Amino acid sequence: xxxxxxxxxxxxxxxxxxLIKALKQQDATADIRAWGGxxxxxxxxxxxxxxxxLAFMGFMEVVKHLPTILSNLSFCKQDIMAYHPDxxxxxxxxxxxxxxxxxxxxxxxxxxxxxxxxxxxxxxxRIQAVKKYVDRxxxxxxxxxxxxxxxxxxxxxxxxxxxxxxxxxxTLQSTDTSSVIALLPGxxxxxxxxxxxxxxxxxxDFPEYQFVVTGMSGIGEEFYKQLMGNSxxxxxxxxxxxxLRQSRAAIVTSGTATLETxxxxxxxxxxxxxxxxxYFIIYLFIDRSIGFICIVNLICGKKVVPELxxxxxxxxxxxxxxxxxxxxxxxxLMKQGYSxxxxxxxxxxxxxxxxxxxxxxxxx
Length: 364
Hints:
17% strand, single chain, Rossmann fold, alpha/beta, six-stranded parallel sheet
């Protein structure tokens, strides 16, 4: 079969690569064309657009890059029609992928959605588009299955693919004697520019600790170094998991990395910050009854990790929250919450289950 897969961010590249491997294992004829990154390419897909050219965060950033986004949409539609896939598999990245819905249906193309956008966190208008256009959702959190089923969407819960990335997860424990504090500033340049300078302000408040910034080669080492200036923090590229395994605590930008950090049992402070216009628009449309932005808290249904948003991402708050999780009761309670989190995520094998179900539905 012919699969056209669209991912637009680093987490989508990771999960897409594992799905591609599973599809190739279960479908010997699989031919895969994709928008993604180095991991999806290494897994065997022909990548026609790279994620480094696709990730735009926030309302103002999208407006600024609107000509590029529209050009990408036009190219994507033409490329899909030239390829004639049996199915288009969309991975998260809703700002772009949702704009393909009506076009794909007009051309009678089957649509699978793997890794759900956080529609349950927003005022629920966009769920109707999913119900109208998407043939099947494949979700990675148990509460997402309930959400989509209640809204009349065909859905399967397959488990979280990160469980396959950390095969020794049950033995992972943060080092209580470590002097390393990890700084995970995000996977997109815009969020790194907003947040890394704030994270670095706390370095001087903890002279007894070594701070390590985790970087991504797709962003570029020089980009991080310019933001870090003369900070005594160390930059380590493409070794996030290695850094987490050695860390006592972490400051993490909201996103998949918050879950990765929790699964390493590393106590963390979660942060989100963008332009004020983008934040205001998010504030207008987000469903504030949910109460959390961090996936760790959402899965557990309670506050396990602290969340600092917009103006609260400052030296005083970061220092206070970090001190609370470096030792004592705050650290102990967070680790107890992590155990609950792990129990809720189900079993490994998400990519294989997703591929198996996709093939089953395609053969019907």
